[in-house]
Amino acid sequence: MKTGRAFLPLCVCASVLSCTDPRARVAPPTVQVNVGTSEVVSPGHIPASIYAFAFQGFDSLRVILRSAVPALNGDSLYLFPDTTEATTDVSWTVPAGVPAGTKITLLAKVWNLIGFAASDSVVLTSQ
To answer: Please, are residues 114 and 29 in contact by the beta-carbon 8 Å criterion?
Structure first.
């Protein structure tokens, strides 16, 4: 009976140490939009770089451009199979005739393989 009691501290110590295992935890992805210019002119381009990280791996990255001018709106879907980190450069064409003061939103949204999502956006104004 005394030998069973001797193993009790050892079992408690082993169970505490197993809880401190530095294994990866489930986490949402991250995404960051960086715009190459602060001035949007018509006609012209909006250069941007999208950085995304997903520890569990990517499902997809969606980049959306929205404004009050229908010709300026756009939507792109990117797939990065077997990737956990990616940077992609995009360049949206700004057509002629976009009025000065038009608000333009560039939104990037990323999903990881287990369904978590994250987004980042930048709002620009045409000059």
So the answer is: no
CATH number at residue 32: 2.60.40.3880
Rounded Cα–Cα distance for residues 85 and 80 (Å): 9
In this structure, is residue 44 part of a structural domain?
yes
* Strand-by-strand arrangement of the 85-94 sheet: 30-35, 44-53, 85-94
- Residues 16/104, Cβ–Cβ less than 8 Å: no
Give residue 65's domain range: 25-125
Q: Would 1 be classed as within a structural domain?
A: no
pTM of the model: 0.77
- Give domain status of residue 3, yes or no: no
Adjacency order of strands within the sheet including 117-125: 74-78, 58-67, 103-112, 117-125
How many separate domains does the chain show?
1
Q: Tens digits of per-residue pLDDT, 14-47?
A: 665 556 556 567 889 999 999 988 789 999 999 9
Residue keyed to tokens 């057509």: 95
Q: What type of residue is 89?
A: D
C-alpha to C-alpha distance for 91 and 89, rounded to whole angstroms: 7
